[in-house]
Amino acid sequence: MADTPRRILVVNGKGGCGKTTVATNLAAMMARRSVMSAEGSQSPQKVVLIDHDPQASSSFWAEQRGPDLPAIHVIQAHQKAGMYQTQSFAYRIPFDTDVVIVDAHSNSRDRDLESLLKQSDIILVPILASPIDIRAGGRFIAELLTHRIFRAAPRPVGVIANRVQLKSETALKLQHFLECLDVPSVATFRDTPAYHEAMENGRGIAELPDSRGARREYAEWKSLVHWIETQPLGETRISDAIRSMPLAASRRPDPSTSARA
Question: Which of 13, 44, 87, 150 has a CB 3.0–4.6 Å from the CB of 140, allowing a cystine?
Answer without folding.
Answer: 13
